[in-house]
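Appendix B. Chain record.
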Amino acid sequence: MLGTTLLVGAVTTAMAVQDSSGSGNSASPVLPKSAPTASEPVSDVVIGYKSKAQEAHSETAVRAGITAAAAKTGLKLSYERRLSVGAALVSLAGARSAKDVTKLIDYFRADPDVAYAVPNGRMQAQSVTSPDDRRFPEQWSLTEAKAGMNVQDAWGTTTGKGVTVAVVDDGIAEHSDLDANVVQGVDLLSDTFTANDGDGRDDDPSDPGNGVKKGECGEDLDGKPLPAEDEPSSWHGTYMAGIIAAPSDNGNGIAGVAPGAKLEPVRVTGRCGGNDADISDGVMWAAGEHVDGVSDNQTPANVINMSLGHEGQCPPFMQSAIDKAVQRGSTVVVAAGNRGDKPKPVDASQFTPANCKNVITVAATDREGNRAEYSNFGSVDIAAPGGDMRKNVGDGILSTSNSGTGAPDAEDFKFEVGTSQATAHVSGLVALMLSANPELTPAEIKTAIQANARPIPGKCDDGCGAGLADAAKSVAAAANGAPGSGSPSDSPSDSPSDAPASPDAPPTASAPSDGSGSEGAGAGTDLSACLHNSCQVEVTGGDTIQLDGADGVDKLEINSVSANTVDLAGTSDSGSQNAEQTAPGTSQLNNLVVDIIKVDGDRATIRLS
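Structure tokens predicted for this chain:
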């Protein structure tokens, strides 16, 4: 589990290749039809020449060709050196735009003597674990195959760097497993009793504790004291922050879902909770809007986590705040609520902000993949691990906390459960997706998470949205610019088709067929999460994956999956190559590497690179 993997994208071997008319290797690389999209600015390109071309043997010919290319494209080019495999490295005199790079590559590819022209990409070691975190093995919600969120494979793409997540909650307590990722926040509590810090609104989001005595919060409608018993401080915001973005490289306790993201504490609750007006201001401030009485937000949040709520309809001013946040590009993630185990269980449509529009509403699942007994249900968008400690404390969600029952004391780690925890997991996932593709809109993110969800592995008779969030699939779809059409995703088989849906929820992906029908993946669905030849997906017989041809394969066809074996074929303009591979194992079609990770009945998990 704690191994380290170097994940490599599509690799083109730079070499002088044999002419197709010659007597060389028949498996010579197939020329890509168009320039691959660069994932970062390109400063130089690599040009490979056919073996009979003059440039394959003459430095003078290479230089003459580069001079001609510079005159034709208007770019400043220089010949750097010949690689050991015979290709030429050409400098663009600094990073150039994708448009310029495409123009240059298309120019070279039009030359019949050129075998290939590709960007000189930069690889990075991609560690998919966090071996320094001593309590990482207890974080089943990130790692376990059955009901975890498949977060480790997502870390092979990104850890959330460059993204800020606002934790709209009760502030944050100092903690060595969080401090490195915390940016300036705010305290928007307008009532001094609730704030419990001696003043009203200010720029200090520190959590002074929210412990209360019996009856200190008034009475309920039946005249019973609130709370019914003394309650210690919850350190709720500190706890959510750890799930979302605890750093993974400090050798301390845990790793967050997005350990490279930044945390922005927005304090809106305290003793006896918090009011909707303060919370709506918190949403506005987090998104970068001006709020009187405090400094403006210098780092507007890309993601807003709201692990809070109450029964009732979405207040118009709360909806307005959310709408403005979304318009500014913030994705708002909210809890479905914890009333699912009451005598009269609550559908999430009766809970706010779960019933607000333009949000991602999250239900909670336990370690076996069932809807957690406390979780609201029905009108939700997605489910994520929230835990259930009725049988075992370790079945809860481990995160950062504090040992103080009133005021802050020593930093701590605790197991807790709730839709709050599930919401924090999804906020971390959104941070990963935005780090992989900052251009995604809140609507596209929601679509991608739903379309790439896994079936609920346990029971959720009342409806758990699109299924269990899958970090690796969602991040792969985001990275490839096709958020709504990533790897195939079953609709939860245990959720009724007429279960209530959030008013603005997009349609979920249709369930793959067994390959015999005319719909679903079995009919040859375009799994475009793999368009650029680097992804991990689940497939079945009949699936077709369209690729960009950069590795000599335009289309990968899954002929059949059975008996722990995958029969597949790669096609291109030059023909077709077939392979039959057992799991685990690796096949190569031209330069496309296909890892068969596992086979489960008629479905297989494969990775392309």
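Further analysis of this model is presented in Appendix C.
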